[in-house]
């Protein structure tokens, strides 16, 4: 048996080494758990903070002295050239940008705002503040929306519930102003990727439309494209827009004003980038169309058939805009209605805009019928 291999003996060390291995594994596991916990805490620490709206307007930072209604002078008051119709309300608007931050204007149709940007819009009727709306861009990239209702003594503006507030101001005749809730705000603001309304290349163009209805004087310090760029508050704006400020391409002053009004009042829903884009119905002015391309409203509204039929719509009205026939143009019919099922805009207005009705009526009457079924109508020159 010499030379033969001795029988293998059991490894007596095994019982002693297994606990060590288990201990090592336990240490590793504990280390891993600790690492995961730390990572988790770190991830939580990095999670963008999402705020809720404060209960009182003064807590949003609008005022330097709330008791005196003195707005913080660091905020910039501005005025869009095509304001939104709000039942005749007198409105003031302010923007606040974080220190050393600027708006990215490289896409003139959808500016990108820095986190912390805030907007306020104040509504007054009969010389009395009724509501103030507030927006703030949060760290997670979403906008915070809130509305505040002023009391009769004008010494408090409190957060309105998510459902909004009815009968905030009595217009008479059973009509009253409704302060929108959060979902109402989102229904308009989230209809286009930009989300901010009334603060854009067109709305702040130095080439303001003198025929724009409800136009307001530009408040000091004169916020427009030039002001924003010169003060390094707007960067990467295409130089072409400095050389040639944005203008609605209308064949006549009436057409320019009418299309501007539709842009300011309807394009936040009716555009080519939002949830209604499948309608193929855009009233939004686009800054960089291909050469020779007409305004989107001309291409998608005039002579184009409506999709569906709403209650109250005239039976012979089949086109969004029928040249020379305002009575058979569905767009005008819906502007002229305050039936909740039919009216346009669908929210935040209880009274029709009579001045806008007259403007759009004249524009439609001046249109020439299309030269062909596929063509966009030419316009009859109507100098003013």
Could you explain the architecture of this structure?
With 384 residues, the chain is of the alpha+beta class. It contains eight helices and twelve strands. It has helices at residues 14-46, 182-189, 225-230, 239-243, 253-266, 296-300, 330-335, 354-366, and strands at 63-65, 70-71, 76-77, 90-96, 103-104, 118-125, 128-137, 143-150, 157-159, 165-172, 175-179, 234-235. The strands form four sheets. Strands 3-4-6-7-8-9 form a six-stranded antiparallel β-sheet, with helices on one face. A two-stranded antiparallel sheet has the order 1-2. Strands 5-12 form a two-stranded parallel sheet. A hairpin with a 2-residue loop joins strand 6 and strand 7 (128-137). Helix 5 (253-266) packs across helix 8 (354-366). The termini are far apart. Residues 1-29, 32-40 and 378-384 have low confidence and may be disordered.
The whole-angstrom Rg is 30 Å
Percent of residues in helices comes to: 10-25%
Which band does the percent of strand residues land in? 15-25%
Query: Given the structure, what is the number of helices?
Result: 8
Per DSSP E runs of 2 or more residues, the count of β-strands stands at: 12
Largest sheet: 6 strands, antiparallel
Taking pLDDT < 50 over at least 5 consecutive residues as the criterion, the unreliable ranges are: 1-29, 32-40, 378-384
Strand arrangement in the largest pleated sheet:
3-4-6-7-8-9
Global geometry: globular
